């Protein structure tokens, strides 16, 4: 692509006014004393509500693990970091066939994409707001069922409780009857769908019209 | 007190003070940079990070001093030493306080080597020796990035030596001396209106710019630009040897700040507070504060400029030296000669400098226009803007 270089007049050619202008900007930033720095260990970062931190396994009303060992998350996981060993549910749990005998999640292998919680049909696995994951060995970060359930106990009463799955309620995007057209950044012919329903970014005109 | 003892005392004080001052300048630079970028800067060690330089110093002393197996050991070790040595030597003839004040205690002297008649030349001679540190460091590192950085540094320093020296020659002609103390004395005797900046504003601008290039400071730090050359000539250096290079650079900064204040801004002279006629107890201390204050201002300006102007491209750097600053400083010098020879008032130099500046701007603008007009498919910008506003130029080709 050819980028036309700007023309330079008298003052631009002497550099001096431009440098003064630049110095004014830098000086303004020095003197206004505004900072964007977050003093991390003292001040916790204000993360967005959809932040995807470490996982948890939810409990149901009877304090049982919600997971039904359907292996959907295992199938969905692109990093292959979940290992579930299923066991037949005891007869006093009529609402399910199976439950996880062991549920191991490698927090180091996980890429925190959140596909597991989207795949989960019973909202058993969720990603929490906890971001400061530390461990001294790799084995320590292979979290088992008890550890993941304890994360639930720790995070369930926090106002930053995960909002993505909302326990079976769909998000606002589900309420759109149709998705709005996104304008292409090029000239479109009048017959195009996006030209009939213009949004920002649609440039009307026939293709190939240029100077 | 015998002279030799005073000299030894001054040397020891200066040599002890400069690393400390440099350390705190690094803190200042980090803090100022942080503020300019809306950050906080170092604030963990001590109140407001004030002990950060000490922590840095201890770290640099205790770090492992790596000498890579592929380097030329002798040169590799000598290079940082040359860098610091030349920077410190250049400082020897720079008065960093009032030098002709009789009210000062007799054992205090604000210059290491007083009454050197070739002061300015000495500084430039030693200053250009400083590039040996860079070149040897880059060469001895036996590394392409270091060698490239060193080559750039040497080309840059050689180019900018010329405008640097020639911009000061005007002052040497005006004052009739190369002795820094005398140059300062002439300005302090006359007060504000005899500061050299009035007669040589263009030279002051060029001197400051060229000394930025000499000190390898941004926007002229092509020799160590991180994006292209990792660290440039100090890529292979670590720990204390790297710190010595840094010390040399900051000492150079201090020297050129003092030089600019002395040569162009009247040394310790300041209207109403410190004039040739003013006399009150502690005046020498005030003079010292004024001179260091001026130098401090220039150091702050250098740091501000660092984050204000993007780095030059290498051809632009050379163009600025050879096509702009050398002709301009030559014209400036001729102007001073003319003025001196025919005995015109010095104030004509102010007018002449402005005229030179205007001529430079006009010529650059015209050259630029001619260069653009030679390009294929060049349309004058005004026409292009008109086309866009009518919606005809929206297709992307």
Could you characterize the architecture of this molecule?
- The complex is a heterodimer of chains A (211) and B (397).
- Chain A is of the alpha+beta class.
- Chain A has a domain of 117 residues: Alpha-Beta Plaits (2-Layer Sandwich), CATH 3.30.70.
- Chain A contains 6 helices and 7 strands; from the N terminus they run ααβαββαββαβαβ.
- In chain A, the strands form 3 sheets. A 3-stranded antiparallel beta sheet of chain A has the order 2-3-5. In chain A, strands 1-4 form a two-stranded antiparallel ribbon. Chain A has a two-stranded parallel ribbon with strand order 6-7.
- The longest helix of chain A is centred in the first third of the chain and has 17 residues.
- Chain A is elongated and about 90 Å long.
- Chain A starts with 9 loop residues before the first helix and ends in a 7-residue tail after the last strand.
- The C terminus of chain A is likely disordered.
- In chain B, helix 10 crosses helix 11.
- The termini of chain B are far apart.
- Chains A and B meet through helix 1 and helix 2 of A and helix 1, helix 13 and helix 14 of B.
Question: Features of this protein?
Answer:
heterodimer, A: 211 residues, alpha+beta, Alpha-Beta Plaits, three-stranded antiparallel sheet, two-stranded antiparallel sheet, 6 helices, elongated, disordered C terminus, B: 397 residues, mainly alpha, 2 domains, 14 helices, 67% helix, globular
The description of the largest β-sheet of chain B is: none
Shape designation of chain B = globular
Order of helices and strands of chain A: HHEHEEHEEHEHE
Q: Helix-strand pattern of chain B, N to C? A: HHHHHHHHHHHHHH
Based on CA atoms alone, the radius of gyration of chain A comes out at 27 Å
Quaternary structure annotation = heterodimer
Topology overview:
The complex is a heterodimer of chains A (211) and B (397).
Chain A: H1 10-14, H2 16-32, E1 55-57, H3 72-76, E2 82-88, E3 98-106, H4 115-119, E4 125-127, E5 142-143, H5 145-155, E6 187-188, H6 193-196, E7 203-204
Parallel strand pairs in A: 6-7
Antiparallel strand pairs in A: 1-4, 2-3, 3-5
Chain B: H1 3-36, H2 52-62, H3 73-91, H4 119-140, H5 144-175, H6 180-190, H7 196-199, H8 201-214, H9 226-229, H10 239-264, H11 283-306, H12 314-342, H13 347-373, H14 381-389
Helix pairs in contact in B: 1-2, 1-10, 3-4, 3-10, 4-5, 5-8, 5-12, 8-10, 8-12, 10-11, 12-13
